[in-house]
Design a protein that fits this description.
Layout lengths: L1 H76 L13 H9 L19 H11 L18 H12 L18 H12 L21 H9 L18 H11 L4
Helix pairs in contact: 2-7, 3-4, 5-6
Length: about 250
């Protein structure tokens, strides 16, 4: 009888012990699961924060790039020179020569489009147009010119056959008249009669030295005159010469 009581007590104790162990295991598993869930939540939150930070950085960079693009667009739409608006008649020609580094304007940011172009300025533009190496030949003209580069450019234009001078003078500071402009462009671009019908200008007589040159540049649509006249003795403006040179570039 005592043995049975002892066995029963021991059985109950074992059951209680097993129950306690099971509860302990379940509690530990529950705590572990909760820890995993907490860890998982924290990891997801960290990853989301990282993604958000990267997204914010991308948006910030995109905004910065857009601002840079806007600045570039504004710069593109802005006039090249203070005195040459984008709707000026010769703007596209001036812009074309500026981008090709044939012209650069004045230091004050102006181009002075309506000012007469001088013979030296025209020579300099043509030297740059054809990218000619500067001459090292002795200066032969009677004009007193202190700037060595100016002398070199004048000699370069002379040796290239663009300019011939007048009685030993280059006359660098004199305005280039329109009939001189026609002759210089014909020589520089080696333009010839292309057979296109030509109607003589009333103010350009056939005995004029520049008659053939005026005819040829008109045939090539480099210059078409104004209101039926060519005005050969008028000074060529800087805007006009820029337009003539730009139109002549395909024949270079």
């Amino acid at each position: 009888m005592k043995s049975m009581k002892k066995w029963f007590v021991m059985s109950i104790g074992s059951m209680l012990l097993l129950s306690a162990c099971s509860e302990n295991v379940i509690e530990q598993e529950t705590q572990a699961q909760e820890s995993v869930e907490v860890a998982s939540t924290e990891w997801v939150d960290d990853q989301m924060n990282t993604v958000d930070a990267k997204a914010t950085a991308v948006h910030t960079r995109a905004d910065a790039l857009q601002k840079e693009i806007n600045v570039l667009l504004a710069s593109t739409n802005r006039s090249l020179f203070k005195d040459v608006s984008s709707d000026y008649w010769s703007y596209s020609h001036i812009k074309s020569l500026y981008e090709k580094q044939i012209i650069s304007g004045y230091r004050d940011g102006t181009f002075k489009p309506e000012v007469s172009i001088t013979r030296y300025q025209a020579a300099s533009m043509l030297v740059k147009t054809f990218n000619l190496p500067l001459s090292n030949s002795p200066y032969i003209f009677k004009d007193s010119v202190s700037d060595s580069r100016v002398r070199q450019e004048m000699m370069t234009a002379y040796e290239a056959g663009f300019f011939k001078g007048n009685n030993g003078y280059f006359d660098p500071s004199k305005p280039m008249k329109r009939h001189h402009m026609a002759m210089v462009l014909q020589r520089a671009f080696k333009l010839t009669d292309n057979g296109v019908a030509y109607t003589p200008f009333p103010d350009v007589p056939q005995n004029l030295e520049a008659y053939e040159a005026i005819k040829v540049i008109t045939q090539h649509k480099i210059s078409t005159g104004s209101k039926g006249m060519f005005q050969p003795d008028n000074a060529t403006t800087r805007a006009q010469f820029a337009a003539f040179v730009d139109r002549a570039l395909p024949y270079k």
